[in-house]
Protein 1
Amino acid sequence: MPPNEILFSPWVLAVLGLCIGSFLNVVIHRLPLMLERDWKQESAELLGVELAPSPPLTLSTPRSRCPSCGHTIAWYENVPLASWLWLRGRCSACRSGISVRYPIIELTTGVLFALVGWHFGAQPATLLGCGLVAALVALTFIDLDTQLLPDILTLPLMWAGIIAAARGWIPVTLGASVGGAVIGYLSLWFVANAFRVLRGKEGMGGGDFKLLAALGAWMGWQMIPLIVLLSSAVGALVGITLIVFRRHGRDVPIPFGPYLAGGGVAALFFGDQLMRLWLPRL
């Protein structure tokens, strides 16, 4: 087997995805805290207030610790998926439980990377698909935790799609990519503003506009209706289920970003087939 096929094989990409998923756990947890700290600092400077100094916080500092006892996690306790299974989901020092969400994110990223390799084959552009799904995983869980889709992730993702189209790295023309970004943003912007006029309250955040713009940049304007349709169908189903079975209040907001991300992943893998079923004459 040629080295290129080995490098981009689903098995190798699955291992890479597990490692990237471990890093995404850090991003999902720390990036909102870093942004919140920056917002507080900016507000304090505008108000002329001095904040008490706080310990440094970046994606690499401080080292990962157990939230219960402060035990610094050694490298062999941080091997993706394997360490959680070996430790049986508990801290090695205090035996407090470690959330199952960590291995779920690692496994999800590994599976998605493998699917990208299987779907697109052994080509360098496959790594771009892996980068796209990794960003969508991070945005999904950040939105679930905070109901935020940070510009620091959505905007670079959009520009990366446009650049990839301009360079011919993805099978989307530059015009379709730019059109996808514009139409993706404006379509949800119009929906959100119409909802605000009719209901007198906000129904969707600006981060959702930018996420759909990013997906449009990667997949072209033709995929926007399909992504919105898939996202809305899943979102409505989950929302109704939460209201009926978990007594989730109708006025309690439900983040839409995860459904957009899910619709984007479905369009990435099955978009062409679904479009042919939907519009067989085109």
Note: Residues 202 and 229 are 21 Å apart (CA to CA).
Protein 2
Amino acid sequence: MDAELQRQILPVETLDFESRMLDLVARKDLSTLGHSNRVAELTREWAEFMLSRGSWVGVDPARLESAARLHDIGKVMVPDAVLLKPGPLDPAERDLMNAHAEAGYEMVKSHRNESYAALAVRHHHERWDGRGYPLGLEGDQIPFQAQVVAIADAFDAMTEDRVYRKGRSPEEALVEIERCAGSHFSPVRVAEFVQFIHARNG
């Protein structure tokens, strides 16, 4: 049965936690849902690649994928006028948008099985140099899952077309990811991501 049709037939309380959260996103903005799904798929593929190379031992790709899929859940709390604005945000609007990380964390952390995902949700906009949000964590203070999701999130965002700009090619996005190693992103995670994307694209 089609997943959308299933959502229409089954009462919300019968859906698992992740499905309930994604249903909220779908009702809010389908483009955010599409982005979340692509980031999740990219993250799972990356994790499986690293495990196949003997790295990321102990990492569960399914668990990491779920964390990635929930990373933008807090955007359901962002006003439509800000979330759906067809252009760059002004400073006040940017503050409202940035609040999605903390809002999403509050939504996810209370679920007994989602503490791992909650940390990815809260910290995927932290920066390696400590200039990110919401807490200004730096370096390895940033949880592993948030380090991973941050890169997959940025890569998909850069390659996606927006109303006000054309998406970059995967090659251009990868160059930008590499440029931001040590400032926005973990240098180790960036090197791993570059290796993964090159292998993925043959």
Note: The chain has eleven helices and no strands.
